[in-house]
Amino acid sequence: MSRTDFYRDPQAPKANSIKVAVSALVRDNKGRILMIRRTDNDRYSIPGGGLEVGETPTQAVVREVEEETGIAVTVTGLIGIFSNPEHVIAYSDGEVRQEFSICFTADPIGGEPRTSAESKEVEWVAPSNLDARNIHPSIRLRIEQGLEERVDPYYT
Question: Which one, out of 53, 117, 124, 142, has a CA that is 20 to 30 A from the CA of 43?
Answer without folding.
Answer: 53
